[in-house]
Amino acid sequence: MPKRNKISPFGLFCLVYLSRIVVSLTAVSSMTYGAIGADLLISLVISLGLTLVLSLPAVYCYAKGKNPFDNGFVGLLYLLFFIFLSSVNISRFSYFASTTLNPETKAWLFVVIIAVCAWYCCKLGIEALTRFAGFAFLLTVIGIIFVVSMNIKGYREINLYPVVTNSTGVILRNAVILSSNTAELAYLLCLRDRVNGYALKSFVGGIIGAYATLFTIILIMLGIMGDGARLEDFPVFTLFQMTKINYLERLDVLHISFWITGIFIKTVLLQYCAAISIKRFNMNKKCTVIGVITFALTVVMLQTGLSLKASPIILNIPFWIFCVLIPLITLVFGKRKSTNEAN
């Protein structure tokens, strides 16, 4: 039988890397403010530094053996946080798939498919998910290297100018958005018992690796597309569409493949973290209830368009509360306790 409660540090690296990169690759235009230009690269660099600084409360909680998940009420709040983010990710993918990949298919059908698959994989446990994440990480890296190498001849440095097209306020605002539209800092504390080894190097490495990849892709995208990137709803996807081996073949299938696997892994991970945020109840029952709630909330988000808006309610506030404020309070006032028992 597979080990369903333990993962390697490299497994955590893959989960953090994919979780950080997957949304930004496709939704970079809808998530950010202002015109897409070279100053987005400046925002990325600032965002990396900001993310590392904001991760310090969670990192020190991990190092000192303090964990907000040891408190049952706080664990329940994190359960709601993970369900919320899972619904956001499913609704974003369903919108992308129904408007770009297959406009003839209704968005709710994609929601049903992902929800059912995520529910089943959540029941299999974290170890099985991490095995698949390792494959997805390899697929992603190979695909990105191939696309970059195929497009490098079309790169023109002049397309990056003017380097700054947005105001300083917009650049900083985008940096905050790129830092906060995620949940990796909560993963570190939620999964601390599930990592069979020291997790901090893998955690930090996953974040830095994802930012380096995003920087490279956006640099190539802007160098090739220039102002044309501003006209695209999904400019990174367009870059992959432009990639050809010859005049008859396009490689946008690479983007579709690793983005679908990435969004699936992130969805399952969020639902699994939601399930282990509370100690009570059977794991299978928790996965089922969480799956049903996620599905219902996703449908609401699609109907209202809530997850597609650049709103602080979606992009900022949950992150600051659950990834920064609660770990900071735990670090200052929390007592050193044993971590959560395996569910």
SSE blueprint and pairings:
Blueprint: H1 9-31, H2 39-54, H3 56-64, H4 72-101, H5 107-124, H6 126-151, H7 168-180, H8 184-190, H9 200-225, H10 235-242, H11 252-276, H12 283-304, H13 312-315, H14 317-333
Descriptive overview:
This protein has 343 residues and is mostly helical. It has 14 helices and no strands. Helix 1 (9-31) runs parallel beside helix 9 (200-225), helix 5 runs antiparallel to helix 12 and helix 10 runs antiparallel to helix 11 (252-276). The longest helix is centred in the first third of the chain and has 30 residues, at 72-101. The chain is globular and about 55 Å long. The two termini are 17 Å apart.
Give keywords.
14 helices; 71% helix; 343 residues
Shape: globular
Residue fraction in strands? under 5%
Number of helical regions: 14
Secondary-structure element pattern, one letter each: HHHHHHHHHHHHHH
Task: Give the fraction of residues assigned to helices.
Answer: over 70%
Q: Give the rounded overall mean pLDDT.
A: 85
Q: What structural class do helix, strand and pairing data support? A: mainly alpha
Radius of gyration: 20 Å
Task: State the low-pLDDT regions, or none.
Answer: 338-343
User: How many strands, what sense, and barrel or not for the largest sheet?
Assistant: none
The span between the termini is 17 Å
Please tally the β strands and state the result. 0
